[in-house]
Amino acid sequence: MTNNDEQNLDRVDLEKNFLGSIESGMSLPTDKMPEHPMAPDVAAQLVQHYRLNEAKADQNLATFCTTEMEPQADKLMLSALNTNAIDKSEYPKTAAMENYCVSFLAHLWGVPDGQKMYKDFIGTSTVGSSEGCMLGGLSLLLGWKHRAKAAGFDIDDLHTHKPNLVIMSGYQVVWEKFCTYWNVELRQVPIDGEHMSMDMDHVMDYVDENTIGIVGIQGITYTGAVDDIQKLDKLVSEYNKTAVLPLRIHVDSAFGGLFAPFVDGFKPWDFRLKNVVSINVSGHKYGMVYPGIGWIVWKKNNYDYLPKEMRFQVPYLGKTVDSIAINFSHSGAHIVAQYYNFIRFGVNGFKAIMNNVRKVSLKLTDELKKFGIFEIVNDGSQLPINCWKLADDANVGWTLYDLESELAKHGWQVPAYPLPKNRDDTTISRIVVRPSMTMTIADDFIDDLHLAINGLNKAHPAPQNIFADEDTVQHMVTK
Ligand SMILES: *Cc1c(COP(=O)(O)O)cnc(C)c1O
């Protein structure tokens, strides 16, 4: 054996061993794809090591998205990962499960009696609420165009008939995207000290004949507050009595849509209301599926609510069905997982889970109040989002941004950020309580919150505390 042969043999053995591999002694490729392959175990471990300091899912209190599913669901998803949800002929059972989920949602959201069959309403899975909002917005826009044309408007004359959409100013960014992509004017109803959700005293001031619809938000991303959609529905009904073009409401219930139906304390916000025509939800928020799924349902399956030009024919079992979604290929795994969650937990299971979530959220509010320095902005008695600000009379030498950094040292992610326009001088902190946040995790968090605040008080004493400290020092010196 030559020296070279021995080295080659060593190398072959070492490649089986991650720590001794050549690659683990080198920096990760980042600019150009590497010339040579590496052993799959080595590559997999390198990627795993690279992810080392990413957030620990259960300590990430910033996200709305699911970070924990049951092992059975994990397995199901893995087995369906190689399917394509759009191939409805090849995966007819996945397509069927998609429709079953749409039907479950339509019923949860109170479709009217007499139209409780799948053919009466219509919907689709999406990649997330963003795609659902986009579709909801588009159906409002195209529906408005048809009605405006029929009413004799010259809709090509953008000076007099530029379409607009009315929404409160704490909207999620997808609505800005929608309006930019489709050249729709975004009319924001501002928030103020008294109105942290849609201002019902003024919303109708923003409406005119070019309004394609109003979006009600059942769960404002910033604060977890909800728009009073029942009130909005009344206002719209009143307006529609004399309107040339009757108005409609789309509800963005990205996170509230799979929470509100299972707990007490919400006014009607869904299809029970006359003018609500479509609703979107994120399956990957309180639908408890990993990121990559959302839903939209239209209350009635007609061309008025979901215009014909938004329905595309795809083959299905020798016939064709409507394809509505914007995205085409994506895995069927998320649909399978959503259906699993629905039949696994059932209504009572969802109730039990969401009531636990609420309990944790209320407990956090109690604990936050005990510090005596916070003002509660959202208390978890409706949607399980905890938001707070520093009270005006809180005499501390640090900010919520400092608190964010301090909590991060304990591994918790709790973002601080300003409120929307008009109130953007106010900074708040937010925790999204998700089903994976058990009371044990909440208790642990509260312990660390005490440590974090004590640490901050020491490092950044409030002005008057400095005097107090000096007094003590003086006292000790003169003694
Ligand atoms: C999260 C959210 C969205 C966007 O949803 P994705 O599922 O992340 O695409 C839209 N609207 C509201 C109110 C949200 O909270």
UniProtKB/TrEMBL annotation:
Pfam families: Pyridoxal_deC. InterPro entries: Glutamate_decarboxylase, PyrdxlP-dep_de-COase, PyrdxlP-dep_Trfase, PyrdxlP-dep_Trfase_major. The modification N6-(pyridoxal phosphate)lysine is found at K285. SUPFAM superfamilies: PLP-dependent transferases. GO terms for biological process: L-glutamate catabolic process. Its EC number is 4.1.1.15. One of its GO terms (cellular component) is cytosol. Belongs to the group II decarboxylase family. It is an enzyme of class 4 (lyase). It comes from Lentilactobacillus farraginis DSM 18382 = JCM 14108. The keyword Lyase applies. This is Glutamate decarboxylase.
